[in-house]
Amino acid sequence: RKEVEQDPGPFNVPEGATVAFNCTYSNSASQSFFWYRQDCRKEPKLLMSVYSSGNEDGRFTAQLNRASQYISLLIRDSKLSDSATYLCVVAPGGFQKLVFGTGTRLLVSP
Amino acid sequence: GAVVSQHPSRVICKSGTSVKIECRSLDFQATTMFWYRQFPKKSLMLMATSNEGSKATYEQGVEKDKFLINHASLTLSTLTVTSAHPEDSSFYICSLALGGRETQYFGPGTRLLVL
Predict the structure, then answer these.
(1) Is A103:A87 a contact under the CB 8 Å cutoff?
(2) Using CA atoms, how far apart are residues A104 and B111, in angstroms rounded to an integer?
(3) Distances (CA, A) of A44 to A52, B55, B68, B106, B107
(4) How far apart are CA A73 and CA A3, in angstroms?
(5) Fewest CB within a 10 Å sphere: which of B22, B68, B83, B109?
(6) Per-residue model confidence (pLDDT) at position B35
(7) Radius of gyration of chain B from Cα atoms?
(8) Digit-coded pLDDT (tens) for B8-19
(9) What distance, in Å, lies between the first and last C-alpha atoms of chain B?
(10) What is the phi-psi region of residue B103: left when phi exceeds 0, alpha when psi lies from -120 to 50, beta otherwise?
(11) What are A57's strand-pairing partners?
(12) Nearest CB to B46: which of A31, A98, A102?
């Protein structure tokens, strides 16, 4: 089983739609969780950290369910510029080591 | 602004040659940097952790004699792919974490194509 699993998509949505991505992780000792965004042929960029209490940053909401080992990202009012691959990232608990999911591709169309 | 730079951004080389990739921390001193590799449609895989002034720590399955890492200063880490082969063609990305935190900032990556 992969350490971090994501649905690869692609998710094709119209502008203005709400879309949700899910991610599961296998290591119950994982300490920190993140969503990164990666544009085609570019490096990943931090979108947001994920906290147990859930957190929101503008149109983006991230949630963590430690019991189910499940992380989610909700994007409201999708924009064309949201088209990218969204990477679920977990820090298993070692010093700064990150484990990446394969990413979920989002395509927002006019 | 950018936190990390990489050079070159793209390189094409012949099989059997060695390629050096530089990763620079632009505004911060980085005792630790990370090297990742990403194949098409695959996730980023950590290759090694580069430690300033000491040997790098390699992940399981990564050959340390093939992927030489040197972290001689607090702002520069280099990855040398020795005797490159076509299967080494990939996107190589470095990163650093600031202040001991787990949030990492990535360089723009180096796309290597070995013919």
Answers:
(1) yes
(2) 22
(3) 23, 26, 24, 7, 9
(4) 18
(5) B83
(6) 96
(7) 13
(8) 999 999 999 999
(9) 35
(10) beta
(11) A60
(12) A98
CB within 8 Å of A53: residues ≥ 6 apart: none
Give the angle subtended at the CA of B85 by the CAs of A44 and B70, to the nearest 5°.
60
β-bridge mates for residue B28, sequence order: none
Residues 30-59 of B with CB under 8 A from A: 32, 34, 41-46, 49
What tens digit of pLDDT does each residue of B48-97 get?
A: 998 888 889 999 999 999 999 998 888 999 999 999 999 999 999 999 87
Tell me which residue has tokens 């990403």: B38
Q: Which token pair is B105?
A: 């900032």
**Contact (CB<8Å) A96/B106:** no
DSSP string, A88-107: EEEE-SSSS--EE---EEEE
Provide the residue type at A21 as one letter. Answer: F
